[in-house]
Amino acid sequence: MQSRLEQLRKGFDPLTPIFVLVDPMVxxxxxxxxxPDASADATAVREEGWGRAIVPVELSKTVALPPHQHxxxxxxxxxxxxxxxxxxxxxxxxxxxxxxxxxxxxxRAAHRIGGxxxxxxxxxxxxxxxxxxxxxxxxxxxxxxxxxxADRRVLDLLCHVTGVARVQRHFGRLQTWIYLxxxxxxxxxxxxxxxxxxLRLSRSEWLxxxxxxxxxxxxxxxxxxxxxxxxxxxxxxxxxxxxAASAAKDAARRWPHRFINNHDKAKWAALFLLYQSGLQLxxxxxxxxDAGSKDEPAEPLRYLYDDIRAIVRLTAV
Length: 317
Hints:
Layout: H1 4-10, E1 18-22, H2 42-50, E2 54-56, E3 72-75, H3 82-99, E4 113-119, H4 123-133, H5 152-162, H6 164-168, E5 174-180, E6 186-190, H7 203-210, H8 212-229, H9 237-254, H10 262-275, H11 282-289, H12 305-316
Antiparallel strand pairs: 1-3, 1-4, 2-3, 4-5, 5-6
Helix pairs in contact: 3-8, 8-9, 8-10, 9-10, 10-12
């Protein structure tokens, strides 16, 4: 059986330039590179650290991010470049870090390796296309301006929401985009043609993307817990996560004293993914109904996952 790294290399066209897309919003992925500040020449610092040409992706002026936090592309030296191995390892470490601890974790970790892109466009043209893809384009009323596709979880969710074909029609001369998804599988997006077909999101599609943090965190906790318990992974984690997020919002309305922030909602959504109907047990409702007292306020839901899990397992025996 081929390793995923072998699969990644075989997915490249050897005659087309390869780039790594990096999201430096919360730090650099390369150990020792550090985070360039606003006064530094970020491109020069990165070129020295990576040892490769860097292509900045200048976002729209409507995006309220300093330039050194905008995405950038690392131009690789073909399919045998050792940076392919390094960036794959970093992407896998990011994935595992988000899932560490299962329900005992919080489902959060930086995802700085956005994927591996191939295009025969000039560098500045490719950067402009990626920048255009990162602009929010929706029928919904929103103040959001940045669709953070350099975070591969956002791209993965976008593919779920709109379908892969619509995303790929947005590529034009960006021939290939490969990324590592939350389940550890390589996903391959290919451009069907050169003309770009802009991707505009409906209101309902945008509302799902707005729930991205809740969906990603709950899936990460669910996957981490499933891995530790050797539970079969759901084939459609996003579709089930949407139902789980809705259940978490309902639970937050019913027990507001237990749901203080999104961490609590994500925990309930992860529990829903794991146990679903088990969360309807009377013992769980009695546990959450307890509003505590002034001297001993009720604990947030995030601290009760072991108690909830114990009730579900006891009832299943």
